[in-house]
Design brief:
This protein has 3 domains: 142 residues, no CATH class; 146 residues, Arc Repressor Mutant, subunit A (Orthogonal Bundle); 115 residues. It is built from 18 helices and 12 strands. Helix 8 runs antiparallel to helix 13. The two termini are 52 Å apart.
Length: 431
């Protein structure tokens, strides 16, 4: 949402003062148009050629200094408004200046923004561009400080959520189907629980099976270093793949989709962090290197300490069994959350396991699928749980899958085949 300049007076008198001084400066500059610039050019990296001193030049330099001082004094207010309205300070200042100039001057501003040189015919145009460049430079400093603060806040958010179901929601955003769209038409996954909100934007389209597997494999390979490195051959061995040519093509496509996925977390104090990605990618000579962003490093550290990922997940065919990986990851999260509750054991309500997965909800099946609860919910759940047979065993302890009535309140027991939490403490310490 852009700042509504007309409402500034009510929201911040200090910002109103900045706007008023910019407006006055531009009007004063226009009054001084007595000469023309025959052949002066200006770009961001080009020396500015001024006309010989004019009577109003002193006021011109003084005016820029006054505006810069007002902006410095109003830094907190500008940053606060930028955070609340999601518009950079640089864009706001540029918009205020553009509002006071004609189309020719606006066009010249756009030319300079794109790195082109622009010719000027009036002294006022030169002075306005000088003001804009100075104010823009100061605005960028503020925006960078704001971005840095936002990144720190984002990392703090990961620390707050790493021991809760909110971290599980982040995993879910990677391995689930999109459930919303943004204004640009990009598919998104949105999770909302209380005051916590996470949005994943898939800017290169829905994540495919290889993107899911690369995410899981990179989690398994993470050892605390911000650079995760592995070879195509190692990845193929863990995935049970044979065609190297096809695998390389799928890896590149999956990594591009993952790296282009943008995330945003809204904190408990309603402050929205900036968009961020998990990592950058580098592929050369069949070696893949993922360089984690600060947010990615914070997430991987939290996830590593919290969630166990069995290697058997890499052998799951998520096209045949699309819910197996989300179900196993949720079970792993729940086991980690209950590690201090030995009496609870590995017994869970089915309703908790299928919540926030892509398995159709009761209401959706009732309204859109002819009330076919058995084959649309129950059979799907049992099929994809059975696909994890190399990872865990399961059975109903209460209720059954015979009907929706018996299934909706059913409880299942989980026996992991090889889970580190099930090993004696001495054995875990030895590892």
């Amino acid at each position: 949402m852009r700042f509504n300049i007309k409402d500034i007076k009510d929201e911040s008198p200090r910002i109103e003062l900045i706007i008023k001084r910019i407006e006055d400066y531009i009007q004063e500059a226009k009054k001084g148009d007595k000469s023309s610039l025959a052949s002066s050019n200006i770009g961001e990296d080009v020396d500015i050629v001024l006309l010989p001193p004019q009577p109003h030049d002193t006021a011109y330099f003084k005016g820029i200094d006054e505006i810069e001082k007002l902006m410095e004094e109003g830094t907190d207010e500008l940053m606060k408004m930028s955070r609340s309205r999601h518009e950079s300070i640089e864009d706001f200042i540029t918009r205020v200046i553009k509002k006071q100039v004609n189309n020719d001057t606006k066009l010249k501003l756009e030319e300079i923004l794109t790195g082109k040189e622009a010719s000027f015919r009036t002294q006022s145009e030169m002075q306005i561009i000088m003001l804009w460049m100075q104010a823009r430079s100061l605005s960028r400093i503020m925006d960078r400080a704001l971005e840095a603060a936002s990144k720190e806040k984002q990392i703090d958010l990961f620390k707050k959520c790493k021991n809760s179901q909110e971290l599980s929601a982040f995993n879910q955003a990677i391995i689930s189907d999109p459930n919303t769209e943004d204004k640009q038409g990009n598919p998104c996954y949105t999770f909302h629980q209380g005051s916590f909100k996470l949005i994943a934007r898939y800017t290169k389209g829905k994540l495919n099976q290889e993107a899911h597997m690369l995410f899981i494999y990179s989690r398994m390979m993470y050892k605390g270093n911000p650079i995760i490195s592995f070879t195509v051959e190692d990845y193929m061995a863990h995935r049970g793949l044979e065609s190297k040519h096809r695998t390389v093509r799928q890896i590149k496509r999956g990594l591009e989709k993952l790296a282009a996925t943008q995330f945003e977390i809204t904190s408990k104090d309603k402050t929205s962090g900036s968009l961020f990605s998990l990592f950058g990618i580098h592929y050369k000579n069949n070696v893949i290197r993922l360089t984690l962003t600060p947010e990615g490093q914070a997430y991987f550290q939290g996830a590593r300490a919290f969630t166990y990922l069995p290697t058997g997940l890499l052998l799951i065919d998520s096209q045949k069994n699309p819910h197996t990986i989300p179900l196993v990851m949720k079970l792993s999260n729940l086991k980690a959350m209950n590690h201090r509750k030995p009496n609870k054991g590995d017994t869970y309500k089915v309703s908790i396991l299928i919540e926030n997965t892509d398995i159709p909800t009761y209401q959706h099946v009732k309204e859109k699928m002819g009330r076919r609860y058995k084959d649309k919910i129950i059979d799907v759940f049992e099929r994809d749980m059975n696909a994890s047979a190399d990872i865990l065993c399961w059975n109903y302890t209460e209720g059954s899958g015979n009907s929706w009535k018996e299934f909706k309140d059913a409880t299942v027991s989980i026996q992991w085949i090889d889970h580190p939490q099930d090993k004696p403490a001495k054995s875990r310490e030895a590892k």
